[in-house]
Amino acid sequence: MNWFKQLFRRGQIYSDLAEEIEEHLGEKIDALVAGGMSRKQAEFAAKREFGNVTRIEEQGREAWMWPNAENLLDDIRFAIRRLTRSPGFALTAIMTLALGIGANVIVFSVLNGVILRPLAVPSPENIYQLSRGNNASDYHSYPDYVDIRDRDKSMSGLIANGGLTAGVTIDKATIPSWGVTASGNYFDVLNVKPVLGRFFHASDERGLASAAYIVLSNDFWHRQFGASDSVLGKTVRLNQHPFTVIGVAGEDFRGTDVFFWPDYWIPIVNAEQVTGWSDLCCRDHIGIQIMGRLKPGVTPQQATESLNAVAHQMAKEYPKDDGLTLQLHRPGPAGSKHDPTRLALTGIMLLAFMVLLAACANLATIFAVRAADRSSELAVRLAIGASRGTVLRQLLIEAVVVSIVGGLIGSLLARLLLGFLVHWQPFGGFPTRMPILPDFRVYFLAIALSLASGIFFGLLPARQVWRTELVQAIKSGYVLSSSNRRFVFRDLLLVIQIVVCTVLVTASLVAVRGMVRAMHVPLGFQPDGVTLAEIDLSMAGYTGAQALPLQKKMLDATAAIPGVTAVAVSDSAPFANNSGDWFIYRWGTTDFQPSHMAFSAMNFLTSPGYLELSKIPLISGRDFTWHDDQKSPLVAIVNRTFARKLFGTDSAVGQRFAMWATAKYEVVGVVDDGQYGWLNHEPQPIMFLPLAQGVGGEVMSKYTIVSVRSQLPPDQLSGALQRTLTGIEPRVPLTVRSWSDFVDRALIPARTSVVALGVLGLLAAMLAITGIFGMASYAVSRRMREQAIRMALGAQRVHVMRSTLARPALILLGGSALGIAGGLLSGRILAHIVSFATPDDPLVLGGVMLTMTLLGLIATWIPARRAFGLDPSQLLRES
Amino acid sequence: MPIADPTKSGQRDLFRGALEMMILQSLRRQPMHGYALVQHIQQRSNDLLQVEEGSLYPALQRMLREKLVKAEWEISPSRRRVRTYTITPAGLRHLEREVSSFEQMLTGINLVLSPVES
């Protein structure tokens, strides 16, 4: 008979045993009666001689068991039975923990995906990113890259990569796409393998004469080619230039950025064919990232020294590299100490952990109170022979069952929520991904946290059990010998909980306040009622000079749409398609070195009428006309900050500045300051240049934004714009969105932190309410009899209530004070993430105090009423 | 010989296996049921051995599990439903091993206890 069969036959075995013993006793009794005893005497004698029937049956059954495992199973079953018998307690405990664990799983998943998870390449620990200068910028120029790569001896390979936006044409349909331009050694240094075809190599690089290869990402291959093998050798067009598909990357390899997962990779030397300008020529065209793999046995310190020796040499040779220094850091947000994502996540992780701490504190209280309530039951169990160890084990198992169930539910909820978050695309078509689905590390953390909290607060009531004095306990139904001490451990737990809650409430209020302010900051233009149609003419292969006539045509055609009140064309717009900064030099500068510049300013190339359309107020001077073209002198409109910074006055009309030797400008207008790309305290210097002149009379824009102010319903306008603009250039994809959408996008970080902190704050507040409530009602019920006697002796009800609730109130007060201090500290971190967050705002302080007072009132209201409504005569009669 | 003290059930076997040996030895003569086993052991020991009757059953369960004995429900001559135990070949081998090791032990104890010859 194997153990499995035994398991099912056991019922039979046990009943056989019971029956056999029954028969034994019967036979014995019969024998004794036959020997002359009365039946009653015989029954007694038979049982006496047989021994304890129950015990013997038990021993008989034990022969068939695996005692340890089965006891444990029994204990678990018993624990579950006990828990289902007090569903209120079980539910509270489980949900409390589920919330705590769930919050941690979510935040840790994000942290894990964004910061902890290394690049999906072999030996990712050897990959480092290069940053330069005092501000540790990650962006470099291509000639610098080539010099560093060729001269350095500490890295086994250095790769360069840049971003690329292009219209990709597959079988005549053109869609916008986002790719990466990569140096030839990119895949070899990262040491990744294709799933199909091959990658390009350093040996494929022959400058502009290089073969135009394209490697597809696995995702793009699935989306656009249905994962077909016949894609190899196929030609796709990027901005109308043909590229041959030579390979497909593995599913795991998503480039070297955490959030941006490229659609494809092309050789960096072919980038010029797609973009139409050369970024590889010059040391001041800064826009590529450099990463490298350390040689085996080389430490990052040694590599940094070696790289800086190279940098020093380069600084001597090239004036534009003057003062060049290089640093190594881990790629992505993990590498930089001051990365806002990393700061925010670390902060939120800390807060989430505090929520768990609060949840655990709450649970410890719940369990301690439960143990106290059950003290007489436990005492009875001890009295009838259970060892203290058995009772302890039972309590511990109960706690662990609660924690595991809570942990499971929490993880499940978190997994659901993360599933939604993964598909979040905050930045429109740009392929951002949240690589945050939980992996084994996250689940391991969840299990560890659940078990740790289970064992920890399961052991808290253990101390009470250990000290239980049986007789005392059974007599008074009450064992908490420690309950009369001035300060018990539970109070400490409650203080922790309230501190956590206050910190979180403060942090979320700071974030909310910052967001409200950010929403009300004057923009300096009026996006409401304006719709933007974005077209990248380079996707149809236009050069800069060819673009302008088309842009004019689009402007005229759009103006003819009935219901359109104003139209303008520009290369970029505030909050949409930031076109980049240019270095501004004072008039009279002869040596155009970056170190001599006055500042850098964002630039908008605009058609006449743009200021009027966007309602940007012109303080002095004039708007552009179509006569401000490449035949006439270069002119600019600047904002107030630009004028003050460069000329020290608002009345800058007629003043001059330069961008490079041939780009000399006269200011013809000054506009008021506004917000341009992100919401910020500091006004930024910006300038408007005529679309027809381009930047410096040379750099024309192919990127086109047609801005339309109209009262038409959005659907109707969008449809009309699509028809009109694709009628002019059918080969280029077009996106139409309202300007307000773009502005809203700038609020995403603030919104995200408000939501995250708000949820955590709400959780903490709920936990604090239940915590204070539990503590207060416990305080009331524990001292019920004592207070009844007091009242019988003439104490006022108010006094009774005060003495009962003084402790919870004091704890609330003390905890809140500590919490506000902590909250203000954490608010300083927040100020890095949420613009306009000012932690020492009196409104925030007031809000926190109000919230905590409300929480206290809600939580103590019912216990207070109970204390107030005590009926001494009834209570004394009962006891 | 071990004397069972009914008030201290923990000492029912003075050394482990004594009760099992006696049960197996009794069953080797003839199969019998629990009550008969108790009677048999008491008679054979001239009532020197007061086995606590109940302690027989856990021992029987252990031996059932180890397949040293097997059990069948039968009707006794006194028209009583009884569970009759029979020794198995494995039980026989076990008994022989146990008896020989027990005898060795007894010889050893006797040697130590016998008066020293100078």
Structural features:
heterodimer, A: 879 residues, alpha+beta, 6-stranded mixed beta barrel, 6-stranded mixed barrel, 26 helices, 16% strand, elongated, B: 118 residues, 3-stranded antiparallel beta sheet, 3 strands, 49% helix, 14% strand, globular
Q: Largest sheet of chain A, if any? A: 6 strands, mixed, barrel
Number of strand elements of chain B: 3
Give the CA-CA distance, first to last residue of chain B: 29 Å
Read across the widest sheet of chain A, the strand sequence of neighbours is: 3-4-9-6-8-7
Order of helices and strands of chain B: HEHHEEH
Instruction: Decide which structural class fits the backbone of chain A.
Output: alpha+beta
Unreliable stretches of chain B: 1-13
Mean pLDDT across the residues of chain B is 80
- Strand coverage percent of chain A: 15-25%
Q: List low-confidence stretches of chain A.
A: 477-486
Estimate the strand proportion of chain B: 5-15%
